[in-house]
Amino acid sequence: LGLCVSRASASVLNLNCCLVILPMCRVLLAFLRGSQKVASRKTRRLLDKSKTFHVTCGVTICFFSVLHVAAHLVNALNFSENYNEDFLSLNAANYRGEVSQLYLMSVLVPGLTGVIMVLVLFLMCTASTYAIRVSNYDIFWYTHNLFFVFYMLLILHVSGGVLKYQTNLEEHPPGCFNPNKTLRQNMTVPKAIEDPFPDYTTEPSPEDLPVSEPFVQNNFMRICSEEPKFQSHFSETWFWISGPLCLYCVERLYRYIRSNKPVTITSVISHPSNVLEVRMMKDDFKARPGQYVILHCPRVSALESHPFTLTMCPTDTKATFGVHLKVVGDWTERFRDLLLLHSNQDTEILPIFQQRRYPKLYVDGPFGSPFEESLNYEVSLCVAGGIGVTPFASILNTLLDGWKCYKLRRLYFIWVCRDIESFRWFADLLCVLHNKLWQENRPDYINIQLYLSQTDGIQKIIGEKYQALNSRLLIGRPRWKLLFDEIAKCNRRKTIGVFCCGPNKISKILHKLSNSSNSYGTRFEYNKESFS
Question: Where this protein primarily resides, as one coarse class (predicted)?
Fold first, then answer.
C-alpha cells in the first residue's frame, strides 16, 4: 500500500509541477489575450483565472508532498523489515531490521533531496500567506524564487533508483521453477512422478500437480532459464517539467533582453493622497489599454520589482506612457524619495529639459490583464475602488484619442473613494472626455458616477473647473442591486462586461450579482483584476 500511495502521489506531483509554471509565462498569456484569432473571448476569460490556477496547483503540490513523504516513511520501514535474501538487488536496506527508516531516508539520494525539497516547499508556502505578503513582500519574493532549486532537486530526487523492475521476463517469468535451486521445504512433489530426476519439460496431468503452487500456470510448469535481472525505473519527471521549465527560462531570457535598456523619465507628478505619477518614454514600446508593466529600479532594490497598471499608453501621435502608484510600503517610499526633490511637496512637475538626474528605471512588459476586454464589449461596466481606477484611466485616455474604432458603444464608469482628494487624480481627464463627447453629440456614451464615502472637504471639488462632475458626485456607497437592475433594463438582451478593480468586498458583491439572473434577458460577464 505504501508503494501504491507513493507512486500515485508522485504522478500527481509531476502533473502539478508541470502546470504550476505555465501561469507565470506572462508573455505567452499576453500573446493569447491580444490575439482574437488564436483565442476566443471565452478562452481569454479563462486566462483571468491564471493566478487562481497557480495557487490551486501550489496547494495541490503541498498536500500530495505530505502524502508522498508519509508513504515513503512507511516504505522505508517495510524495506527494513521485509529484507529478502533471494533477490538481493531489490533490497533498499542493507540487512534485515536496519537501524531505522530515518537512516535509510538519509543515506539514499532520494532521501537527502526529499528532505531539502520539503524544507524549500515549507518556506515557499509559509511566505506565500496573505499576512506575510502584506507585511513584508520581500520575504515572499525571495523565497518564491527558490522554485528553481526545488526543480533541480526534483530531477535529482528520482535518480536514486530505489524502485526496480525485471528486465528478463521471457527467460525468468514470475513464479517459474529454477531446477538449479533447491525446492522450498513446503513444496509438494507430484504424486505420479517418482523419478528422482524428473523431466519438467513434459506436461504432467493436472491431478498430479499441486494447484496451490505459484509456478503452476495454465496446467503446465514453466522453467527458468536464468536468474532474474532487475533495473531501476526510468525517471519520467524530466518529461513532465522540462518543457514548461524551458519555456519559462526562454521567456525570462527574452524579458531580460527586452527590458535591458532603461527608460527615459519625462516627468514626475506628486498627486494628493500619496499617489505618484511617472511618465516615461522607451523606444519601440507598444501597449494596449488595460495592460500593466513591471518596474525595476536597481537603486531601490537590486532584485525586487513590482507590477503597475498603465494609466497612459503610447499612441501613433505620442510615445509617452505612464503609471500611477500609491506610496505604501518601503519600495514605493524609497522610489518616491529618489524621484522627488522634496518628498513632502503636494505637487511637483519636473519637465524633461530640467537638469535633474533620475535614477535608472527598467520596464518589463507590457503584460495582459482582463481590462483589455472592456473595449470588446458593446456595453461595459467598470467599477473602481480608490487607486483601483488606474486600469480604467488608460481606457479613458484611449477613448479620448478616438472611440469609433472600438466595439464599445456605452460605458458605465463607477468610482468609489474615501476622500475627495482622490478624485483629483483623474478629474481633469474625466472632464475633458465628458466635454469631447458632448461636442460630438454622444453624451450617453459614458455614464460617470462618483461615490464619496466620507463627506469631509466635499466643497473642494465643487467649482468651475470640475463643474461637469458636480452632478455625478454622490455621497455614500453604491446600491449595487438597483444599479444592476437599471443597467439591465436599459440594455435588454445584451451581454455586458463587468470589470472590477478594488477591495475584495466590492468584488464579491459584483461577482454574485453578475451570476444572478434578471427579468430583462441581460447577461453580465464578470472580470476582475488579478496580477500574476
Answer: other
